[in-house]
Structure formats: C-alpha cells, structure tokens
Amino acid sequence: MQRGKFITFEGGEGVGKTTQIRLLSEYLKTKGIECISSREPGGSPWAEAVRHVLLSGLADKMGLGPSGEAILFAAARADHVDSKIEPALEQGKWVLCDRFMDSTRVYQGESDDVAPELVDSLERIAINGHKPDLTFILDLRADVGLHRANARRKASEAVDRFEREDITIHENRRNAFLQLATRNPDRCRVIDASQTIDEIAFDIWRTVENVLIKPAKAEQEKRDADQTSEQNEAEEA
Ligand SMILES: Nc1ncnc2c1ncn2[C@@H]1O[C@H](COP(=O)(O)OP(=O)(O)O)[C@@H](O)[C@H]1O
Ligand SMILES: [Mg+2]
Prior knowledge:
alpha/beta; binds adenosine-5'-diphosphate; 60% helix; 9 helices; single chain; 5-stranded parallel beta sheet; binds magnesium ion
C-alpha cells in the first residue's frame, strides 16, 4: 500500500483555504484518491477543545501568556498528528489540512515574546517528522481577504480574536507567509488568491498533478518494471 500524501493550505483570513480544500477533495475523489480534510488548530476532539480555549480569547483573558499558548498549540497539534493525520496517511489516504505548522510560525513567530528556540523545539515535537508533502500558500491583499471573511460570516457568529486585529498585522502576516515560501521552495507553492475560485482551483490541481501524482505514478511503474525484470531473470536462471 502506497502511503497517502499530506497537503496543507496556508494564508490569512478569507483567502479561500476552506473553499479550495473542498474543491481539491472533490477533484481527488474523481481520480480515485481517497482523502480526508482537517483543520488547525483542532482536527481531533482534544485539539478542538484547545482550539476553543485559544480562539475564544479565554487563554488570553486568564493570563496564560504567549509561551503557554504556544505550548498548548503544540500539544493540540501532536494529538492531531498522532490520532488523525498519521493513521490516515498510513492507510493510503491523502490528508488536506486547513492551516498547519506554517501558521504557527507566522502567528506565534511574529511576537517577540516567544523565544525562537521554543518555537523550533515545539515544532519538532508536535509534527514529529510529519512535514507536509506540499503546502499551498494562498496569497492575497489582507484587506481583500478580511472583506471576504466579513461577508462570509453569519450575523450570529462572533469575530474571533485573530480576525479582530489591525490590518497592518494581517499585512505583516501575509509577508511572513511569502518569506516562509521563499525559504522552503521544495515544499511550498504560492498561489495568487485574487483570481476567481475556478482559476485558483485549476492552479492547485495542476500543481498536485505535477508535484505528487505524476512522480508517484512513475515510482509505481518503476517498481512494477523492476519486479517484472526480476521475475524474468528468475525464470531464465
Ligand atoms: N477566489 C475567490 N474570489 C472571491 N470570493 C472567494 C474566493 N475564494 C473564496 N471566496 C469567498 O470568500 C469567503 C472566504 O473564503 P474561505 O474559503 O472561507 O476562506 P478561508 O478559509 O481562507 O478563510 C467565502 O465566502 C468564499 O465563498
Ligand atoms: Mg476557513
């Protein structure tokens, strides 16, 4: 059984991560690839509880502090990886995740209050070697993204604490995502998220074909060919 692929979607609020995960998951199904979708923070029952504590502002209000929050995020991620992501990949399923390690870098890394060594160690412990095979960074002007996120929100839904922040903070995060992409060119692909939903989906499908599906097919064909030639040699001998 071939191991599944792990794809993450990153970027600011309203760039289209959730929309594109849904479309990619539908596309993969038409290709006969089984996949699951997940999100961070959260993804597993325990991690969803931590998500509530963090995003509601409760942790902040009770004075947990930035390092404590970073540790909570990491604990949630470790559980998500162990209980959901890794078992799915092992079963050959693909995993599409809405935010992952890069969001932590961008959101926690921007504050000087968390020591870079702590951020590095927590990342290592939490992902335990499970770096994504491919990461899409959906890139969009922060004001456009926030406008989309606001339009999407139902009147009954509260604005979460990250959405409440100043526009310059969102613009800084956009730049931080782009820098991460530059530092990790093998894994990250920047997508112009100001295009239409269909154009973005097409860019994503093309990239998934080129980076993951074709190489996996070639690998499988090589394995099959090797096996055939081994069989032929055994028969000749
Ligand atoms: N390319 C796009 N152009 C215009 N609107 C979009 C586009 N992609 C998504 N949207 C809309 O913007 C809102 C936010 O999209 P969503 O996928 O929820 O973003 P995210 O998950 O990144 O916050 C939704 O109402 C969605 O329908
Ligand atoms: Mg979303």
